[in-house]
Amino acid sequence: MVVVLASLLRPRDEVWEHLVATVLSRYVINTAWLLAGVGAGVLVIGVGTAWLVTMCRFPGSRVLEWALLLPMAMPAYLMAYTYTDLLDVAGPVQVALRAWTGWSARDYWFPPIRSLGGAVAVMALVFFPYVYLLARTAFLEQSVCVLEASRTLGRGAWRSFTGIALPLARPGIVAGLTLALLETLADFGTVEYFAVDTFTTGIYRSWFGMDSRLTASQLAAILLLVVLGAKMLEHLARGGARYHHTSLRYRHLTPYRLRGARAAGALLACALPVILGFLIPAGALLRMTLERGDWLAGTLFPRLAANSLLLAALTGALAVLLAVAIAGSLRLAPGRLARLGAAIATLGYAVPGSVIAVGVLVTVGRADAALDGWMRATWGIATGLLLSGTIAALVFAYLVRFLALSFQTVDAGLAKIRPSLEGAARTLGRGPLGTLGAVHAPLLRGSVLTAGLLVFVEVMKELPATLIVRPFNFDTLAVRVYRLASDERLAEASTAALAIVAVGVVPVIVLSLAIARARPGTASSALPGAGSGGSA
Amino acid sequence: MRRRTFVRGVTTALGVAAVGAVPTIATAQSQPGDVNVYSSRHYDTDDRLYSDFTAQTGVRVNLIEGTEDQLLARIQSEGANSPADILLTVDAGRLWRTEQAGLFQPVASEVLTSRVPANLRHPEGFWVGLAKRARVLAYAKHRVDPAELSTYEALADPKWRRRILVRSSSNVYNQSLVGALIEAHGLDATQQWARAIVANMARPPQGGDSDQLLAVAAGAGDLAISNHYYYARLAMSDNAAQREAADKLALFFPNQGPDGRGTHVNVSGAGVVATAPHRDNAVAFLEYLVGDAAQAVFARGSMEFPVVEGVELHPLLASWGPFQEDPLNAATFGYNGRGALFIMDRAGWR
Fold first, then answer.
1. Of A172, A353, B53, B109, which residue has the fewest beta carbons closer than 10 angstroms?
2. Distance, CA of B71 to CA of A396 (rounded, Å)
3. Chain A, window 419-438: residues with a beta carbon less than 8 angstroms from a chain B beta carbon
């Protein structure tokens, strides 16, 4: 990170001049629209559906509670592939339209799927579960008393929502939104596929096309500064506000029962994101697989899936441990410097995967060279490459990229634990670490689970770092998709794609069940305190 | 109690994962009887090449696939200890760049020099071309008279307004084509050409070469610029819709005739990495790749043109007949790569 930021101090080269003179303004405008569109999309879909399924009962609401997480299992690039395949000029929808009307391809206007609008739609559909997940856990654990007080004081459902529930859920919602926007910034595959040039395109083209690592680093540095600035702004805007609850009374909340048109409306609003974000693309993949599947699937897949699972599980566990360590030390020994350090450590999420990958290659390579040199000089033993080209290097790359995911989740969970609990523990003679173990760890169980599974799913889907950092002959499901898709053989890629989705669905469902169980006031959480562990 | 179970669960998971990771880390290190290949080709048919080589020689092929530039970055960061023996790419410009960066070593091999034409390999043996791909024009049979087609340059004519389909300038095949035009006509003329092409585009560039072909077949444009094998793959597809699409198209090889430069051709090629730990195996691997058997795999499997004379073409490729090639100059592609991108950016070729 520091290396990237320091590049700003160096003089600009001709590639920089060229970009500024020609395409940079377009990249910036596209990026801004993309962020605005995806941000608005995930907020409306994520918060809206979370409120509906948590506070209202309507036909199908119990199924939708977990079904709304399904789009998370679908990598954005796969969604881009499938929707393009369906809606492009040569796809089945337009072919049918032309056959039905007798028009030729240039006689009519059809919303172009490969466009800014298409990219916004696909990314909003893939990323809204972050907001949904974190908003829902926030709503679930809100003390019923607050809402009841609000209703007693004459506020209606809507005003209780906007006046009480929404502001109280802010840390969760902002964390979810942040994740969605960072993911949008870091994306290259989807925007490239949709022919939308963003800031990331600029980084790629200047680095790989124009062979200017300097300009690429400078662009990346600007990106990081903007992200850092936005984080600071949110922190300032929150000011001294605290979001834990003062009341300990959790009771089962009586949901609003919706009937008739309202129930139908709620059902439609919650089902649509699932249909568009999961059922249609997964169905399209299934159809492609059945028609023209990957003929190597049977022999290759068990090993590919095992590799994918190994990486995802290992990284998920490590990411959680690190997140608890960082968030815990921030809590126990707060300070501006520590906060800034944590912010920088989690910036990786905004950086495109390939850039992280090359950064990790360089770092690991230097470490290896230094160790090898030292060992030769001191002991006369050549150690060669101990880290480069190993699983360890790959897991390191994942951690750099996905630590934000686990940290944000754990941190948001911590923010809701009442400081008086810590005070009590400290008064009773526990040290800072003892407090973390005795008080925070049990309360954070839900957050920790959420964090681990989020990272797990992301690693399953991750491509650029996996591709270039991995050991010899070490293929994963995502690598298989890449090999076929980069050869423009999408139909065959569908089999491995479907496998990624299938493996990703399992933790998503586990996650959803765990959150529902952690609901305060339900039978499974015996202690009122332990019940609030579902925070995320 | 709960906390203990949880902590124990996490610890167990970590332990299991660590034990699982150890053998994988161990096998990451290569053995003396291996050859380590870094490849930016992503064809399943290449697996045949590797397994046949192992069957013939007993040398195991270890493989990492990725994009060229990232593979280069990996070799560079691994430094003197890099396990890489062979870098296999799909663009002559990248071969030139790798050689310029000092990452290839010269190979003096009678087999390579006798079998591969001189213009398809480095004069001092830093790299060798393995298979050729031609950048051709695919036109809609019913809307375009092939008599209207002649050269890449002629596509700038206003009669093609809003009729041409071509992919993004991010793609290396377009960069090498424009690089060749810079070599032939200079920067200013190429800049004008690129502006005219942008004006003639039927839509902003989107998708890969296959998408351009399918879009022409669907009627979104009249002519696409594409590598030849994407068309061959559609025509040979086991999917009826793709064969139908190919049926509506025909190929044209531009810049032919006595005054023509020839059709733009790029190569898949490879070189032995400067720090290769298994140099002999690496050279043997290159020699194997230009042998008749391997060349036939290139021709039949990925439907490229073999570099060795006399190797039988895929019947579809053979049916197109011989054509005149623009003599490949890797330095031109490599050196003009950045200039080509500058030109396309200025022209608004996204």
1. B109
2. 18
3. 437
